[in-house]
Design goal:
285 residues, alpha+beta, Rossmann fold, D-amino Acid Aminotransferase, Chain A, domain 1, Dna Ligase, domain 1, 3 domains, five-stranded antiparallel sheet, four-stranded parallel sheet, 7 helices, 13 strands, 26% strand
């Protein structure tokens, strides 16, 4: 039976200028005789009862429009199957999920959250740290500081808090410079692809638009064990997610972020992931 699939994206990556991975996913469905369309998530004229499902993809403006985004996804989920499910997406918007995973036994990059600038402090053992919003994407409003430079830390944190957001401090782990930030794509509980991401010389952000470099790598045994541990601690393993992780100085792998909303799944390089994502969506609708 022919299925209709809505691929949700921001206006910047709508049907006329789609993100290449979204166009590839669209073609993957259409080549099998189904009908997939790229739709702007904030288009209120769409009747989702005419779609068998909607999947969140290049919605890379959601963090700036979070209440509107969540309201729209809640609406969509009432009329069709949403991937990932609304509850998972809503809970994943705030990086405080890291603390819950740490409580369950998953090693994380040392992280502290603050809503009040007066209560902010930096652990004595930290040499450098990253300041970022608890709700953010793509390295927005993210800065690196020496732990002793409390004035610059306070200034960066205050700017975030004044936007009505909580601030997240994370210890800077030098492994990002050589080992890199590793990003493993997991589809339906299966590890399909791992990317090594490193910052440009003298930088700390690994995103390509910040000058970072991406290289496909094979996953190591201890990385696979870490991901299996993480999967065992998640109450509901979603259709898709990306796990970003680093290594501590003692070589322990630790979670940096768990992306379950609109992560880049590297589908142009991740042939296995593209095929599995297509198959799993069709299986679930």
């Amino acid at each position: 039976m022919k299925k209709r699939i809505a691929i949700l994206a921001s206006r910047d990556y709508g049907p006329l200028t789609p993100y290449p991975d979204d166009a590839l996913l669209c073609e993957s469905f259409n080549s099998l005789g189904h009908e997939a369309k790229i739709i702007c998530w904030d288009d209120e004229d769409i009747n989702y009862t005419k779609f068998d499902c909607a999947i969140v993809r290049a919605c890379w403006d959601y963090d700036r429009r979070l209440p509107e985004f969540l309201k729209r996804l809640s609406h969509i989920s009432r009329y069709t199957v949403l991937f990932n499910p609304y509850q998972i997406i809503r809970e994943n918007t705030d990086k405080r999920y890291l603390l819950e995973l740490e409580k369950s036994g998953v090693p994380i990059v040392p992280s502290l959250f603050f809503d009040d600038i007066e209560k902010l402090y930096v652990p004595a053992e930290w040499h450098k740290l990253v300041v970022k919003p608890a709700v953010s994407a793509s390295g927005k409003d993210t800065s690196l500081h020496l732990a002793m430079d409390i004035n610059s830390i306070h200034a960066a944190a205050a700017e975030i808090i004044n936007q009505g957001k909580s601030v997240l401090l994370q210890e800077y782990l030098p492994s990002v410079e050589k080992y890199g930030e590793r990003s493993s794509v997991i589809i339906a509980g299966r590890i399909t692809f791992t990317m090594k991401k490193t910052p440009k010389s003298g930088g700390f952000l690994v995103h390509i638009h910040h000058g970072g470099s991406y290289t496909k790598v094979d996953i190591a045994e201890d990385e696979e064990r870490f991901l299996e541990l993480l999967l065992s601690k998640i109450s509901i393993v979603p259709l898709y997610m990306r796990v970003d992780y680093l290594r501590r100085s003692d070589n322990t792998i630790c979670l940096l972020e768990l992306e379950q909303i609109e992560p880049n799944l590297y589908l142009r390089q991740n042939e296995e992931g593209l095929k599995l994502l297509t198959q799993e969506i069709l299986k679930r609708i």
